[in-house]
Amino acid sequence: MADQTLRVLHVEDDFADALLVQNAICEAGDFGIEIEVTGTLKEAKRKLAKETFDLILLDLRLPDSLSPADTYETTRSCCGETPMLVLSGSVINDNDHIPDDVVTLDKNTSFSSKRGQLPTEIANIIRETAEDSDFLAL
Length: 138
What we know:
alpha/beta; Rossmann fold; 6 helices; 5 strands; globular
């Protein structure tokens, strides 16, 4: 799947975080990952009803969501079998809102990895998650 273009829906209300992920992917040289950003749960639901994606990149705390659990459950119900990568800057608080089989990493910790490694790590995680049916939290 490394040569295949991936369509990713990034559900993220923080513009800077969305740019950070996009920039990391470009720095990794993986130009085969197309990211479309939506800033609300409502926008994500609308997109998922009309289009198919290879991966959902999901922030759990959105302005129009009732709770992180609501964000996760609503998105899961809309995206069917599409793999999901949950990005959370507050894993300690949000860990109770996602299933136990979801691997969790705090994005604050992940984004402070050794210089030069972040872009490749993010691109690889996106590709690996899109190929896997399990869910991964970053």
